[in-house]
Amino acid sequence: MKRMLGFALFCFAMGMLVMIVIHNRFCGFVLMILCMLAGYYLFCCDDC
Hints:
Layout: H1 2-22, H2 25-44
């Protein structure tokens, strides 16, 4: 559980860093949606 929480916090911090660098809300929103879809696909895909 500690490793999963640490990974989640690391990803959260990387996301904040990327949003500081991007400076564009639309590109950030598109990137967020793409990452959410990819994460859902990788987490829930049974036949990958």
